[in-house]
Amino acid sequence: MVQKAKILLVDDRPENLLALEAILSALDQTLVRASSGEEALKALLTDDFAVILLDVQMPGMDGFETAAHIKRRERTRDIPIIFLTAINHGPHHTFRGYAAGAVDYISKPFDPWVLRAKVSVFVELYMKNCKLREQAALLRLQLEGDGHAGGAHEKEPAGLLAELSARLAAVEEQAEALSKQLDDESADAAAVATAAHLERKLTGLRRALDALEPGTGGGAGILPAQNQP
After folding, report:
1. Using CA atoms, how far apart are residues 21 and 5, in angstroms rounded to an integer?
2. CA–CA separation, 74 vs 56, rounded Å?
3. Which residues contact 217 (CB under 8 A, 6 or more apart)?
4. Which of the residues 6, 63, 80, 138 could staple to 56 if both were Cys, CB 3.0 to 4.6 A apart?
5. In terms of pLDDT, which residue wins out, 200 or 55?
6. CB atoms near residue 79 (< 10 Å)
7. What mean pLDDT is predicted for residues 30-50?
8. What's the pLDDT at 162?
9. What is the predicted pLDDT for the residue at 90?
10. Binning pLDDT at 50, 70 and 90, where does residue 223 land?
11. Confidence grade of residue 201 (pLDDT, cut at 50, 70, 90)
12. Span of the secretion signal (predicted)?
């Protein structure tokens, strides 16, 4: 069973949270409510999220301050933030949103179809990154085990590399299709940049796998290349 991605919805008004849930329910992901910036930060301590929808105007800690805290934490700094606001004070106000680390800035009332499409892009990118991390962890574990086994297990790494290569090829194909989709839909620059970052990670993992093929002289030491930005 494929694990669902979590989407954090932050708004101090219950009716707004209910509306967001109605719009995003079609994505069939896990929607998590937070009625304040403090509550959102608490949720981010324990759970991983694909994207955060953050209301700007909230009593106490507003959206800008909440985003600043999110971006200061190593665990959460890379989570995409979409700001939602009922007011628009012009370019300066919008710039402040992007400066706070938002990938998008949407004024209310917004088009439900547009919001759902934007969120779905980040959910899909999150799922691709999860698959990539799983494949990398599996390869590391197997290589560590093979380093201590030896003997009768000498032929096992070749079979494992072939299996991982096939799985990686499937993820590469999906990532390529996603990139083409983003180009066709003239997607946000942030979404395109995130997709490009994912492709770079995939390229690094592919090089690591190729280097580990028999006769290439590669070894486990090349694996960290996949973690380069």
Report:
1. 14
2. 22
3. 211
4. 63
5. 55
6. 20
7. 95
8. 74
9. 61
10. very low
11. confident
12. none
Task: Retrieve residue 148's tokens.
Answer: 């201590």
Cα distances (angstroms) measured from residue 175 to each of 4, 52, 169: 18, 22, 10
Task: Provide mean pLDDT across the span 31-43.
Answer: 96
Cβ atoms of 123 and 149 within 8 Å: the answer is no
Sheet holding 30-34, edge to edge: 30-34, 6-10, 51-55, 81-85, 104-107
- Residue-wise burial string across 61-70, b where 16 or more C-beta atoms lie within 10 A, e elsewhere: bbbbebbeeb
Which residues make beta-bridge pairs with 79?
none
* pTM beyond 0.70: no
Q: In angstroms, rounded to a whole number, what is the distance separating the alpha carbons of residues 127 and 106?
A: 24
In angstroms, the CA 122 to CA 128 distance is 10
